[in-house]
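Journal club prep — side note

Before the paper discussion, L.F. wants everyone to see what a predicted structure for a comparable chain looks like in token form. Sequence:
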Amino acid sequence: MPIKAFLFDLDGVIVDTAIYHYQAWRRLANELGFDISEQFNERLKGVSRMESLDIILAQGGITLPDDKKNDLAAQKNGWYLELVSRMTSDDILPGVATFFSQVRKAGLKTALGSVSKNAPLILERIGMTNAFDAIIDGTKISKGKPDPEVFLKGAAELEVSPAECVVFEDAVAGVEAGKRGGMFVVGLGSPDMLIQADLVAPSLAALTVEEVLKKSE
């Protein structure tokens, strides 16, 4: 079945907001009396906000009621939004513009599949809202990755089947989500980490659309 659509994660694929997430989560951890490292932060990639908070609280040995956790998640998000609101098109990762140009020339449909509720804001800041035919973010899903919901909804909105989709992901949870959704998955990052991916490259800058389509045949 020929590929008709490319579905992209946002963080680590189009832009790299991991440093902003880390700064905000670390500030929260510090206020709770402990610290988290950048290495620890890798565990939070592709994971929803509340799940990330649970992982951090477990790291600090802290148990809190849901209302308090909601307050902390909102506080972290406020700090994060302060940081991402300063983003511009300069924050688009190398190779993204060229790759998307190839995507359009190939006549492929595009969707964003991100668990972030801030994805529309980030796309607006970097000027890429119109690069996507469909945008599925954290406000449109009930399950975070590795559940495939975000990508299955993207395929449905594009009116294509999962088998006609290629997913681009940098996180282990995201790669698993794409595979569970029955899609061809391109992992962006380390082959040692993204072992479930069908194809692995350092970034979009290292790929061409023609190469991806050929590999996914």
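L.F.'s comment for the group: The CA atoms of residues 95 and 205 lie 4 Å apart. Keep this in mind when we get to the figures.
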